[in-house]
Amino acid sequence: MNDSARARILARIRAAVADAPEVPPPDDRAYLERHTDDGPAALLDLLHRNLADYRATVHRTTPTGLAPLIATILRGHGARTVVVPDGVPDSWLTATAAERRRDDGPLTAAELDGCDAVVSGCALAVAETGTLVLDAGPAQGRRALTLVPDLHVCVVRAPAQIVPSVPLALPLLDPARPLTWISGPSATSDIELDRVEGVHGPRRLEVILLRE
Predict the structure, then answer these.
(1) What is the Cα–Cα distance from 122 to 103, expressed in whole angstroms?
(2) Using the 8-state DSSP alphabet, how is residue 204 labeled?
(3) Can you tell me the distance from the alpha carbon of 126 to that of 130, in angstroms, rounded to the nearest whole number?
(4) Contact 127, 162 (CB under 8 A)
(5) Domain boundaries, the chain
(6) Neighbour-count burial of 10, counting CB atoms closer than 10 A to its CB (0-12 exposed, 13-18 middle, 19+ buried)
(7) pLDDT score, position 53
(8) How far is the C-alpha of 112 from the C-alpha of 149, rounded, in Å?
(9) Where is the LUD domain (predicted)?
(10) How many CB atoms lie within 10 A of CB 119?
(11) How far apart are alpha carbons 28 and 125 in whole angstroms?
């Protein structure tokens, strides 16, 4: 398009909108902070559904059933070694025969790659998006611990750690901490939409909703 043609087109646009009224921009877009006002039980169900939709395997249990459930999960995946971040209660792993590896030293990338699983807690879980948030706090450890092993077993305390939405989660998190947002097992797709799991993190994600 040459300059004269562009000028004619722009002149026609200006003439067409010359009498259009001025529309001031809105002062407040009034975005919703959450899309549900349901109580803790409904939020737990919503989180469960969305985690499963992202291909995580989801379990529910009480404190007395937690250790046997973790042992069953690890045994079911053939996990013989498990990384245990600082702050994970010993009671979580009393029923498992897997060798426990603490992050003393700390563990090298090669050592982590040689571990079959990691068991961790989380900072928060977002019900509307099925997202786990880790911030390297207690029972979580540094980011590499939950990204390198092939199996991640994550315990979410319900209802204390479940929030409805991302806007309500952000004020509860410290932006200075290393935040990891997890929505299902690590996966990517190429241009032909062939899905490959385990590229950027654990290939298998097992989430335990611990009803306190």
Answers:
(1) 17
(2) E
(3) 6
(4) yes
(5) 38-211
(6) exposed
(7) 95
(8) 6
(9) 110-210
(10) 29
(11) 28
Q: Which of 101, 103, 61 is nearest to 80 (CA)?
A: 101
Single out the residue of 95, 69, 93 nearest to residue 82, CA to CA.
93
Q: Per-residue pLDDT tens, the chain, 212 aa: give them.
A: 567 888 899 999 988 888 888 877 776 667 778 877 778 999 999 999 999 999 999 999 999 999 999 999 999 999 999 999 999 999 999 999 999 999 988 999 999 999 999 999 999 999 999 999 999 999 999 999 999 999 999 999 999 999 999 999 999 999 999 999 999 887 676 677 676 666 667 899 999 999 98
Residue showing tokens 């690590």: 186
C-alpha triplet 54, 187, 193: angle, nearest 5°? 100
| Token pair listed for 4 | 């004269």
Give 45's DSSP letter: H
Residue count of the chain: 212
Q: Strands 99-102 and 117-120, how do they pair? A: unpaired
Backbone torsions φ then ψ of 8, nearest 5 degrees: -65, -40
| Closest CA relative to residue 103, chosen from 95, 115, 91 | 115
Amino acid in position 149:
P
Q: Which amino acid is at 40?
A: P
